């Protein structure tokens, strides 16, 4: 049996470099991926991500610009604290609107296809928030979601060092920089080659990798389990929210409404019992306070939890998309290899016909029948076959280069995906700790306040004496 004074959580490490939405704390450089510089070791796993420094980001101070006009919008103050050498100042800041975040996200996805780029909140509405897009509640929820978006980027060892993210924080001519980035992207566009010409014809949505890598199968299973857990949690807390406080004080269809109705009934009873009117009024007020506590807990704890759960789900979808793209790269290589094998077989068949050994090359019944059909059609002229072989030789050379490139691309993408999974795991663990910590803090605050309310009313109720 554990002693009363024994701390059973001594082995649990909870310290992590959190950034408050409205201020910066000093970064803890000894802990937390993305918040400290990695100590490089030649014996380290090359597939593990490496961080060059920390980037602490913040989104705050939403302001309605061009108010009272049809072009009104909300701008946010984005700021950072960093020691990354790519930044020209350790404390960059600027004001950005939602469309700027959309541009940043879209082009990071295009420029870094192997990276898990988090999604943005919906442009037009947020769940569990009433009012228009300029209401304080909506702007605060969006600010929090944008803050979380930048936090995810800041924890990524590649994205945190991108020139576009640096300009997002530092540039005083952001619109000019956006146009330049569109006109001259940092990565060269793929030239039209054989892969571009034949991929659409070869690949389709129903194709499957024939030689799947067990590592990525395990990753996909883990993603499935994680998303299933998030979906179950979201449904459960949505049900709890609906039964406890549906956010509408007028509905009276939840537990907060029941406590309010009970308070009214107790207050009415107090008017009938002249000797205990005052204690019953105190009890009625306590019920009203408890009802308000339930509603407050829903707004400050349950609703943010639901939003964070949904945000984590969309983040996981972005991770799933990277895994799917890796499979597509392997599928490109497999399909191109098969195509090369088919073209080579056709070239060998023609060579066998020219040498007078048609049907003896071991190419099968299909090749023999094709030879017979060509003979019947009069298409067995050696000169035409030689011309076909010349074209096939050129195609084989081009395909060999394409297969080599596809193989190298597939291997490189697989290695990058392994690093991405490590980064996603770090980020996921950090957010889960933050989310569950906020839930625990909210519940502790609720129960402490509830206990104080009931502790005050219990002695009042106990002093009631009723003559029988």
From TrEMBL:
Residues 54-176 form the PX domain. Keywords: Autophagy, Cytoplasm, Endosome, Lipid-binding, Membrane, Transport. It is a peripheral membrane protein. GO terms for biological process: autophagy of mitochondrion; endocytic recycling; piecemeal microautophagy of the nucleus; protein transport; reticulophagy. Signal peptide: none annotated. Residues 1-28 are annotated as: Disordered. CDD domains: BAR_Atg24p, PX_Atg24p. InterPro entries: AH/BAR_dom_sf, PX_dom, PX_dom_sf. Gene3D superfamilies: Arfaptin homology (AH) domain/BAR domain, Phox-like domain. It is found in: Cytoplasm; Endosome membrane. It comes from the Eukaryota. GO terms for cellular component: early endosome; endosome membrane; phagophore assembly site. SUPFAM superfamilies: BAR/IMD domain-like, PX domain. The keyword Transit peptide does not apply. One of its GO terms (molecular function) is phosphatidylinositol binding. The keyword Cytoplasm applies. It holds the Pfam family PX. Belongs to the sorting nexin family. PANTHER family: SORTING NEXIN-4. This is Sorting nexin-4.
């Amino acid at each position: 049996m554990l002693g009363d004074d024994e701390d059973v959580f001594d082995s649990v490490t909870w310290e992590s470099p959190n950034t408050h939405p409205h201020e910066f704390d000093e970064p803890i450089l000894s802990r937390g991926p993305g918040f400290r510089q990695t100590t490089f070791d030649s014996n380290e796993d090359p597939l593990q991500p490496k961080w060059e420094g920390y980037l602490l980001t913040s989104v705050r101070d939403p302001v309605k610009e061009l108010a009272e006009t049809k072009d009104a919008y909300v701008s946010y103050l984005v700021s950072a604290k960093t020691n990354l050498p790519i930044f020209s100042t350790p404390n960059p800041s600027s004001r950005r609107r939602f469309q700027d975040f959309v541009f940043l996200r879209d082009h990071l996805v295009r420029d870094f296809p192997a990276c898990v780029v988090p999604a943005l909140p919906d442009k037009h509405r947020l769940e569990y928030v009433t009012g228009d897009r300029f209401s304080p509640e909506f702007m605060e929820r969006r600010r929090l979601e944008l803050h979380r978006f930048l936090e995810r980027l800041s924890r990524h060892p590649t994205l945190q060092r991108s020139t576009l993210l640096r300009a997002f924080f530092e540039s005083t001519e952001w619109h000019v920089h956006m146009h330049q980035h569109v006109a001259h992207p940092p990565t060269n566009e793929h030239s039209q080659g054989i892969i571009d010409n034949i991929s659409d014809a070869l690949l389709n949505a129903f194709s499957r990798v024939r030689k799947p890598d067990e590592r990525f199968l395990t990753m996909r299973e883990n993603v499935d389990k994680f998303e299933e857990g998030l979906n179950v949690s979201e449904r459960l807390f949505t049900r709890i929210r609906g039964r406890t406080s549906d956010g509408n004080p007028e509905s009276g269809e939840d537990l907060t409404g029941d406590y309010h109705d009970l308070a009214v009934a107790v207050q009415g009873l107090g008017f009938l019992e002249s000797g205990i009117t005052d204690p019953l009024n105190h009890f009625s007020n306590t019920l009203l306070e408890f009802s308000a506590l339930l509603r407050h807990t829903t707004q400050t704890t349950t609703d943010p939890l639901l939003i964070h759960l949904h945000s984590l789900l969309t983040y996981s979808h972005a991770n799933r998309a990277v895994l799917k793209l890796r499979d597509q790269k392997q599928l490109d290589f497999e399909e191109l290899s098969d195509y090369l094998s088919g073209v080579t077989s056709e070239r060998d068949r023609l060579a066998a016909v020219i040498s007078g050994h048609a049907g003896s090359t071991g190419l099968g019944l299909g090749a023999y029948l094709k030879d017979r059909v060509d003979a019947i059609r009069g298409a067995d002229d050696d000169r035409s076959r030689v011309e076909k072989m010349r074209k096939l030789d050129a195609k084989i050379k081009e395909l060999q280069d394409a297969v080599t490139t596809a193989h190298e691309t597939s291997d490189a993408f697989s290695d990058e995906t392994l690093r991405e999974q490590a980064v996603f795991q770090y980020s996921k663990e950090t957010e889960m700790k933050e989310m569950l910590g906020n839930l625990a803090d909210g519940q502790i605050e609720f129960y402490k306040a509830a206990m104080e309310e009931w502790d005050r009313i219990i002695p009042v109720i106990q002093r009631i004496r009723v003559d029988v």
